[in-house]
Structures are given as structure tokens and as C-alpha cells.
Amino acid sequence: MSETTALGLSTRTGAVMIAFTVVFTALMAFTEDATRERIAASANDEKMKSIAEVLPPAAYDNALLDDFVLVGPTPALGLDDGGRIYRARKASQPAALVLEAIAPDGYSGKVNLIVAVRADGSLSGVRVTGHRETPGLGDYIDPKKDKNKAAPWIVQFTDLNPASTPLDQWKVRKDGGQIAYHTGATISARAVTNAVARAARFAADNQNRLFAAPSGKPL
Asked: How far apart, in whole angstroms, are the C-alpha atoms of residue 96 and residue 87?
């Protein structure tokens, strides 16, 4: 094989390898983008399902997941690393705040919550989104685990209003409040109840600046 022929073959081989690399890289980038979009869409769908459990879609008409405020470490909400607060609006007027919160003192550790507080301070709903409470004992705080499907424990918070029940009375009955609990499993209920009360107080104290803050920006 002559030197010219060898050089030509080497050049063609190099060109093929470069073309293959470009095509492969483009294909991988396309696949990654498509996968990322599907994952993000799935995460948003799950988040909207959770929000719908505490705030009916008819209660607002804005793009809720696009209307949020970032908060840094917030002890009142149990957020060591910060989180998001979503703002529901109806006809451009404040309708409700949807807060991520954590009860740090569950029986088996942290209990993650989502709390919806209407503009008048009343609760639209509360749900547990993550926990490690004892199966069959303290896990009744999660309506998916609660054996009472007709009236799950967590629905006691729905429509609870500081106008009729002062926030310092938002406690389990054992502590002098009005929230029922299961005998032998007080700690889980107390942790959630106290966290909900703190979230409601935070919403009341910060409602105006939360709704006024630029969307997507730190509070």
C-alpha cells in the first residue's frame, strides 16, 4: 500500500470516527433532554396531585407551580435546607398559600407535610407526604395508612380557623387542645399538630410579603 493510499484511508477512517462521535453525542444529548423533560413532567404531576388533596383546583386559577417563593432555612416550617411556598390566586387576588413543612419530632424521625392555608387564615387541608412512623400504630397520620377511610385522622385540620380557635389552642387533646389522637400513639399526632400550628402562624405572619414577593425569587 502506497503512502498516499494509506494517508487517504487514515483520513477517511478519522472522518468516519468524527462523524460517529458527533452523531452519538447528539443522540445522547437528545435522549437526556427528552428523559429530563419526562422526569420533570412526572414530578410536577405528582406534586399537583398532592396539592389537589389539600387545595381544590377550583380554589385558584393561576399556574400554581410557576407562582412560588423560595425560602431559606426556616425553623418555623422545620425546613433546615429551605423550600418552596406556592401562591394560589383567584382572579389575581390571594386565595391560599401552599407550604412545605416538616415536623422534626415524629416518633421515628421527621414527618414531611404539605399545608394549604387560605387567605383568611383557615386551613384548606393538610397531608403527610413522607414519614417513618410505626406501621399500624403511629402511621395513622397518613390517610393512606389510616384504617378509618371514612374520616381519616388528618381531616380534622380541614377548615380549622384561628378566628374561632386561637392558634395556641391547636394542640392534641392530651395537651389541652381539640385535636383527637389514637391512644398509645400520641407522639406522631402531637408532632404533626404542632407543625401545622407553626405553619399556620407563619402563613398569617408573612402572608402579605409572601404574596407580594417576585415569583421564583428568594423571600
From this structure: 6
Sign of CA dihedral 199, 201, 203, 206: negative
Integer Rg of the chain from CA: 25
Is the pLDDT at 53 greater than 80? The verdict is yes
* Other CB atoms within 10 Å distance of the CB of residue 24: 10
Are the beta carbons of 150 and 164 closer than 8 angstroms? no
What average pLDDT does this structure show over 167-183?
95
CA dist 115 and 207 (Å) reads 14
Is the pLDDT at 35 greater than 90? The verdict is no
CB burial of 91-113 (b: ≥16 within 10 Å; e: otherwise) equals eeebbbbbbbbbbebbbeebbbb
